[in-house]
Amino acid sequence: MVQPEDREDGAAVDIILKGKRQMKRKYGVVDYLRKHYPPPEGSGEVEVEFLEGYDSIEGPDGSMCFGVFVPTEEKIYIADDLPGGEESMIETVAHEWKHWLQYCNDEAYDEEEAEDFARQIVEEFL
Questions:
Q1: Please, what is the Cα angle at 79 between 82 and 100, to 5 degrees?
Q2: How many whole angstroms separate alpha carbon 93 and alpha carbon 87?
Q3: What does each C-alpha distance from 20 to 38, 53, 109 come to in angstroms?
Q4: Of 19, 75, 111, 121, which one has the greatest count of Cβ atoms within 10 A?
Q5: Phi and psi of 76, rounded to 5°?
Q6: What whole-number distance in Å separates Cα of residue 43 and Cα of residue 100?
Q7: What 3-state class would DSSP assign to 76?
């Protein structure tokens, strides 16, 4: 019997490696943000949860989005099956991270600022 990892075309191995790379990248960007863009002194931590199998999430206002920061939970939710792949995921995590930082600094949520920050993180991280 031929095991998936023994296939000549390497398909099963590629799928496994791709999954591991994607997992490393998505958690890697969270680690990168924690290290380089921490909250102000005295702020708590934010939890980032990737929702497997979701390509969008319903926001607090009922709109559909790729990610959302929920202040009452101090948690960021990210749809794990985003169109646009890895870059889209990194951008979404960074966008919501910026909203968390705005929350920690008692600032109003600024979508333009969050978008600019997200693009900056994509450039830095990739």
A1: 120
A2: 10
A3: 26, 16, 34
A4: 121
A5: -110, 130
A6: 10
A7: strand
pLDDT of residue 25: 61
Encoded tokens for 20? 């591991």
DSSP classification of residue 37: S
Q: Coil, strand or helix: which one is 30?
A: helix
Residue count of the chain: 126
- The values of phi and psi at residue 57, to 5°, are -135, 145
Nearest CA to 78 among 39, 21, 125, 25? 25
- Digitized pLDDT (tens) for each residue of the chain, 126 residues in all: 333 334 344 444 333 333 444 445 667 899 999 999 999 998 989 999 999 889 999 988 899 999 999 999 999 999 988 888 889 999 999 999 999 999 999 999 999 999 999 999 999 988
Check: pTM over 0.70? Answer yes or no.
yes
Alpha helices in the chain (DSSP H): 11-36, 85-104, 111-125
What count of other Cβ atoms lies within 10 Å of the Cβ of residue 91? 24
